[in-house]
Design goal:
Number of strands: 0
Shape: elongated
Order of helices and strands: HHHHHH
Largest sheet: none
Distance between the termini: 55 Å
Number of helices: 6
Radius of gyration: 17 Å
Structural class: mainly alpha
Strand content: under 5%
């Protein structure tokens, strides 16, 4: 086991959650109807296509998060943006439940995303402040 996994359980947990996000996204890409059925959504060609597209973005964000957290010096910017995606997913699913698009069981997914967003915010804060950008030269 890597030393940082033992030293930093939050980072280890977030790495696993990033991988879970990528894996569940891949399932949505390959079998969107299966996931839609579990969430109580009508399975039409449109919903399958859109859910598969959402899954592709989950693969990208989850994979990027996992990749950056496995590096010696994780990027605070990437961790922050991944947290923003998770917060947005929480809000979108909650709105979907309120609108009757998703069954209430989908709130389990929403609160998983919220918990991940909070963990990512805590971890991003621990990473410290980003290095200020170099001044941009204005060309007349």
């Amino acid at each position: 086991m890597s030393a940082w996994l033992r030293r930093d359980p939050l980072r280890a947990l977030l790495t696993v959650l990033g991988a879970v996000t990528a894996l569940t996204g891949a399932v949505q890409v390959v079998a969107p109807g299966l996931v839609l059925g579990a969430l109580g959504v009508d399975r039409t060609p449109v919903t399958r296509q859109l859910f598969g597209t959402v899954g592709m973005f989950m693969v990208v964000v989850g994979g990027l998060l996992t990749h950056v957290l496995l590096r010696p010096d994780p990027s605070r910017v990437v961790v922050g943006w991944a947290g923003g995606q998770k917060l947005g997913a929480f809000l979108a699913v909650c709105l979907g439940v309120l609108a009757g698009v998703f069954a209430p069981v989908a709130l389990g997914v929403a609160f998983f995303d919220l918990a991940t967003a909070v963990g990512l915010a805590v971890y991003a804060r621990r990473l410290g402040h980003p290095v200020p950008a170099a001044p941009v030269a204005v060309v007349p």
